[in-house]
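Reviewer 2 asked us to include a model.

Predict the structure of this chain.
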Amino acid sequence: MLDLLALADRDLRNAKVSGLDNDWRFNIAYNAALQAGTAALVASGFAVPKGDSHHFRVIGSLALTVGLEGKLVDQLDRYRRKRSVSVYDVAGAISDAESRGMLALAEDLVEHVHAWLLQNHPDLMDSKS
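Predicted model (structure tokens):
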């Protein structure tokens, strides 16, 4: 099976490219976190429908799938709302601190999900993992 975290890994690499503005760095890092959460849901046997509340549901599931601490789930949910503002309402809405914070959280989450998959679902990981 394809590595479930390939999209998250790609997004983490791209979020670290120099010269990105804060909005884009934040959004790319956010997408890495979302992909990691989606991978955890899929590995747990759940379908992940797109559409209404998709991001909310993926983020909310992280405590149940990979045992993510509630404070980290809450932080990611705050970032979800901030992302919505930056994508749909206001250019330049993301500060440097928020951009760096989202990237750090995404890196930690991708690493956490990767370790969880190796421990709980090694059959779903390919040989590159």
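The longest helix spans residues 96-120. The chain has a mean pLDDT of 92. We have added this to the supplementary material.
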